[in-house]
Amino acid sequence: MNKSIESHHSDFIAVIAGHGSYAPAGILTNDDFTKMVETSDEWIKTRTGIERRHVCGKDESTAQLATEAAKKALATAGLKPEQIELIIVATITPEMVFPSTACFVQKNLGATNAWAFDLMAACSGFIYGISIAQQFIESGRLKNALVIGAETLTKIANYKDRTSCILFGDGAGAVVLEGRPRKKDEVQSGVIYSTMYADGSSWEALNCQAYGSRNPVSRPLDDPKKIYMEIKGREVYQQAVRRIVETVMECLEKCNLTLDDIKMVVSHQMNARIIESAAKRLEIPDDKIFININEYGNTSAASVPLAFDQVIREGKIKRGDIVILVAFGAGLTWGANVIRF
Predict the structure, then answer these.
(1) Is 298 marked active-site?
(2) From the candidates 208, 268, 271, 337, which is the catalytic residue?
(3) Closest-CA residue to 337 (of 88, 57, 39, 3)
(4) Catalytic residue, candidates 30, 144, 271, 298
(5) Catalytic annotation on 8?
(6) Which residues of the chain fall short of a pLDDT of 50?
(7) 123, 165, 208, 255: which is the annotated catalytic residue?
(8) C-alpha–C-alpha distance, residues 122 and 39, integer Å
(9) Sign of CA dihedral 115, 116, 119, 125
(10) Which CATH code for domain 190-340?
(11) Would you call 158 a catalytic residue per the annotation?
């Protein structure tokens, strides 16, 4: 089912007021993987575009990564932690079953006036989070929100499966959304449009089945590998390309835009070949597609905010430019945000 939100009919608009990202210091290169599984640097780069990925240390956790990214976003927004009203953490590798990772981030920051929750939509989680925060801000219910995507995927990767373990890295990215009064007949920065989809019938394409109520910790697994992520690569590839193309086309149509109006498309970094295939079908020129999977690998919900922060820091977009954030992930879930930065 699809839910679309157009930013036209409220007194407020949700603006990107701050941004930040964080990646742990540990690095796994493609050459490191040749010592673990049968693979090569050339094989990995050719099929995925990945050269290295950042990896948590033994004592580093998702909440710690999220907190560091959040601190940077707050700093660029010029806000103190106690001024934040909502914290959303998108993750599939939470700090623990409960409490939520967002509550740990709230504690770490000292954001004593924020309510907080986690959002699980896998690689699409940050896109979903932006949309949710957008609605609270546009309604006037909140003045601001901190939206974070954070993952420690290397902790649930199967390092005996050469087709999947090479893909994943750890990291976090964050934005501060702030409400600004909407001005009539004036072009303003802010979230213009959000769209989200889900298809639970294809859940087996991407999953990690332990430990939930279906496979509780109290019962031995019928397959020990269920503690790790499972990916059906061909199905994911085909679905991802199709859904990204459809979603970007929808954004252009609903917002009455053309590709000439778009400065940059920032996609979830799942696989360079998927991003390039989608861009080719959409006829998006190379200078409007951002790829940083070579440095970070697939970081699921952290992927889009990591890339978005890098795009801003490197000056690839400036105030007034229109950016499309788009993602596809487990669920299956997919969606996009159109933002005038």
Answers:
(1) yes
(2) 268
(3) 3
(4) 298
(5) no
(6) none
(7) 123
(8) 27
(9) positive
(10) 3.40.47.10
(11) no
